[in-house]
Every structure is written in structure tokens, then in C-alpha cells.
Recover the amino acids of this structure.
């Protein structure tokens, strides 16, 4: 036994020190990335970026989504799966051990010695054995180490994908809430306008019956009522779609999704939000490079780089060590006796001959790496595109809200003048109707512009990978 151990110890040391890696040295793809976005400031990501809107209901909904969303649950399960995969890959670096036990009882007849028989007409022979065996595939070329590192990068990529899902769900919840508020506002506007037009129709119907207004006027008034009714139906359809989308994001039950939404977003939120986040003028590029999708793309690239080392190692011979410690006896109670023990140590080597197949495998993983490089570069490009688009959108939607707010103010005043002119006989009803319709359209557009403005701020946070902190 001592001789065997004295041989195993140096062999293990040699195997552990002789390993090398055939994977190419990793280098991040070089890209022309600006140091800052329009200015140089120092900011850091803020995890709970949605709290910048200072809306308690919104904060509650986002926290509920992060706790119950099914996409997040799916991403979490995939991270657990990747963690197990990393463990399996690392186990390949260690010896594989096993225990075996056998027992046999054999009966046979002795035709040459008729006297030496038992009561069953034959002899009985027992055989018992037990052994502990271990096999170690020596990692001379770094094949298993590269496979383990590739699995580690897969785990990093899966964790980044989970973070991206969390970020996307939070942003989706914020946007759905804003649009639910906008459509609630539009619904309230349409209900108010419809009621006013229906009340006006009653008055003008009496005037028509008395011959005070023309057929054109009464028909225009009736058409205007139906326009408001159609706007109310459209707002309710859009509001319902936002509510059900929000319910799915929150992980609500199918019964809750099917029933009338219990999420009540005030329409006035859009016009009286406590504080709108002020975006910084400069955004460092290192924030953008921390986006989860960029981290995921680079981790996938690094995994592909390690896979090349795994594929290249197949060209070279593989070595293995096997050891066996056991005992055998014809009697079970004597199985553990030292005189019945035995041991064995063996080594193996195998050299592949299908080099053309291995070459194709190397070519395949090298092409996979090139695809991963292109994916990484495209992800970075899209990240900067997202930031630019989001920053421009939030700026211009702010201008749009300001312009539409003034338009509503002017049209409201114009409607008062138009009604006075009509009542005094200085203008036709068509003039009054046109002014009223323009005001209603501007109010509907203002509600949508508010939602677009707030959603664009959420998209800036999404583009930055989570927000900013001064």
C-alpha cells in the first residue's frame, strides 16, 4: 500500500503543475467610445430610480412587480441552473470516485466425485468483494479548466440577463402606470366633453325644432356628440389594455387579469406630478458600459473564447489515472480482513486520429466567437443609440408638453370668445364647433404628451442601465 501511495503522490503533483491553457488571450473589442456624453460629470447608478418620480403608488407597484413578475422568476431559475452547470463543470477537474460491492452464491454438480455432494445434489461456492475506485482525467492542456471558466462566464451572462429582465420589468411597470394615468385622463376628458355635448344637443334640438338653426347646424352638433362618444370608447380600450398589461407585469392571477382592474391611476397625476426628475447634462460612458445587456454580451464573448481552448485540446492526447482499493473473500465475515485486501493503480493515454473532425469543431467555436464579437459591438452601439434617443426624446417631449399646455390655454380662451360670438349671432355654429373640437384634440394630445415625457425619462434610466445619481 505504501508503495502505491508513494507513486500516486508525485503523479498528482505532476498532473496539477503540468496543466496549461490553449485558449487565446482575451481582449475586449476596441471601439471608439466617447469619454462622456456632452459633458464631464461623475454619476453612479441608482437602483431604485423610479423613486425619483415621488409617487407612492408607483413605488408600491414597482416593488410588487419585482417580487411577483413571472419573467423575473424565470430569469432567477435560469441563474440557479447556470450555477449548477458551473458546479458540474468544476467537478470535471476532480477525480471521479465510486464504490462497488458484489456477492455471489454459486451451485454446481461434481460429476467426478459422486460422494462429495450436498443434500441438493451439488456444491455451493460463495464469493464476496467490495472496492473503492477513482479515475482522474488529467488536465494537461487546460481542457476542463477552460470548460469550467466558460461555464463561469455563462453564469455571469445569465446573471446579467436576470438584471436586464429586472430593469426592463421596472421600466415597463413605470411606463404602463404613466400610460394608464394618461388614458384615465383622456377618459375623464371624453366623459366631460360628451356630457357637455349631449346637454348642448338638447338645447340646440329645441332651437332646431323652433326653426332657429339650420339642418347643417343640428347635423354637425349630432356628429360632434358621436365624435366624443367614439373618443370615450377609444380611451377606455387603451386604458383597459394598459391595466391588463400592468396586471401581467405585477404577476397578478388570471382571475384578476380577467376581472375589472383594481389598479386605479388618477388622471390628474399627469398634470400634477409632485416632481419630474431633472436629467444630468453629462453622462459618463462607464455608466453605459455597465448596462446588463452589455455585461451579458461580453460574458458570452469570454465564454466563447474559453470554448476555443476546449476545442483545441481535443487535438492532443488525454491522460488518466485510475486507482482501486478493494477486498475479496469467500466468506462475508472475512471480507474486511487485511489479508484479503488488494490494490491497483493504472494509467491511460488516448490519442485522437479524427483530426479533420476536431478541426471542424475548432472552426465552429472560432466562428461562434466572431459572432459573439459582432453581438457585443452591436449591443454597445445600440446602447449609445438608446441613450441618445432617450435624451433627445425627454427634452423634446418636455417642449411638447409646454407647447400643448399653452395651446390648451389659448384654445380654452378662444372657445369662450367663439361661444359669445355665436350666442350674439356674430358667428356660425361651425366656427364654435371647430374651436371646441380643436380644444378637445389639444387636451387629448396633452395627456399623451405628458405620458410620453414621463415615459421618456424612464427610458433614459433604462438606457443608462438603472438611472443616475448626482
Amino acid at each position: 500500500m505504501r508503495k502505491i501511495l508513494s507513486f500516486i503522490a508525485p503523479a498528482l503533483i505532476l498532473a496539477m503543475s503540468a496543466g496549461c491553457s490553449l485558449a487565446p488571450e482575451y481582449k475586449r473589442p476596441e471601439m471608439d467610445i466617447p469619454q462622456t456624453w456632452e459633458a464631464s460629470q461623475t454619476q453612479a447608478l441608482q437602483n431604485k430610480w423610479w423613486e425619483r418620480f415621488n409617487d407612492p403608488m408607483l413605488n408600491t407597484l414597482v416593488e410588487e412587480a419585482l417580487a411577483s413578475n413571472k419573467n423575473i422568476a424565470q430569469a432567477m431559475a435560469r441563474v440557479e441552473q447556470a450555477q449548477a452547470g458551473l458546479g458540474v463543470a468544476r467537478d470535471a477537474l476532480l477525480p471521479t470516485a465510486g464504490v462497488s460491492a458484489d456477492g455471489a452464491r454459486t451451485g454446481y454438480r461434481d460429476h467426478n466425485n459422486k460422494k462429495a455432494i450436498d443434500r441438493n445434489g451439488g456444491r455451493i461456492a460463495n464469493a464476496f468483494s467490495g472496492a473503492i475506485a477513482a479515475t482522474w482525467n488529467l488536465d494537461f492542456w487546460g481542457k476542463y479548466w477552460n470548460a469550467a471558466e466558460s461555464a463561469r462566464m455563462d453564469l455571469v451572462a445569465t446573471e446579467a440577463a436576470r438584471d436586464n429582465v429586472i430593469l426592463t420589468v421596472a421600466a415597463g411597470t413605470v411606463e404602463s402606470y404613466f400610460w394608464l394615468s394618461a388614458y384615465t385622463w383622456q377618459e375623464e376628458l371624453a366623459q366631460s366633453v360628451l356630457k357637455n355635448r349631449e346637454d348642448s344637443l338638447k338645447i340646440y334640438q329645441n332651437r332646431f325644432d323652433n326653426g332657429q338653426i339650420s339642418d347643417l347646424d343640428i347635423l354637425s352638433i349630432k356628429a360632434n356628440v358621436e365624435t366624443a362618444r367614439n373618443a370615450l370608447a377609444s380611451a377606455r380600450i387603451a386604458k383597459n389594455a394598459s391595466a391588463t398589461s400592468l396586471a401581467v407585469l405585477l404577476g397578478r392571477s388570471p382571475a384578476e387579469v380577467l376581472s375589472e382592474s383594481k389598479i386605479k391611476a388618477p388622471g390628474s397625476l399627469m398634470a400634477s406630478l409632485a416632481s419630474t426628475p431633472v436629467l444630468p447634462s453629462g453622462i459618463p460612458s462607464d455608466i453605459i458600459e455597465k448596462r446588463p445587456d452589455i455585461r451579458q454580451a461580453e460574458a458570452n464573448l469570454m465564454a466563447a473564447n474559453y470554448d476555443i481552448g476546449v476545442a483545441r485540446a481535443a487535438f492532443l492526447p488525454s491522460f488518466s489515472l485510475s486507482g482501486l482499493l478493494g477486498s475479496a473473500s469467500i466468506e462475508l465475515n472475512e471480507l474486511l480482513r487485511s489479508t484479503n485486501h488488494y490494490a491497483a493503480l493504472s494509467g491511460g493515454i488516448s490519442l485522437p486520429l479524427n483530426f479533420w473532425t476536431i478541426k471542424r469543431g475548432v472552426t465552429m467555436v472560432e466562428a461562434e466567437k466572431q459572432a459573439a464579437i459582432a453581438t457585443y459591438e452591436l449591443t454597445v452601439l445600440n446602447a449609445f443609440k438608446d441613450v441618445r434617443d432617450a435624451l433627445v426624446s425627454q427634452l423634446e417631449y418636455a417642449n411638447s408638453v409646454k407647447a400643448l399646455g399653452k395651446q390648451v390655454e389659448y384654445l380654452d380662451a378662444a372657445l369662450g370668445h367663439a361661444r359669445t360670438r355665436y350666442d350674439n349671432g356674430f358667428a356660425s355654429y361651425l366656427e364654435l364647433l371647430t374651436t371646441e373640437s380643436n380644444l378637445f384634440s389639444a387636451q387629448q394630445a396633452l395627456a399623451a404628451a405628458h405620458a410620453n415625457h414621463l415615459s421618456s425619462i424612464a427610458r433614459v434610466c433604462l438606457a443608462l442601465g438603472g438611472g443616475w445619481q448626482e
Observations:
- Confidence is low (pLDDT under 50) at residues 1-18, 38-45, 115-120.
- The domain at 106-138+318-349 is CATH 2.20.200 (Outer membrane efflux proteins (OEP)).
- Strands lie at 36-37, 96-108, 123-138, 283-284, 318-329, 341-350.
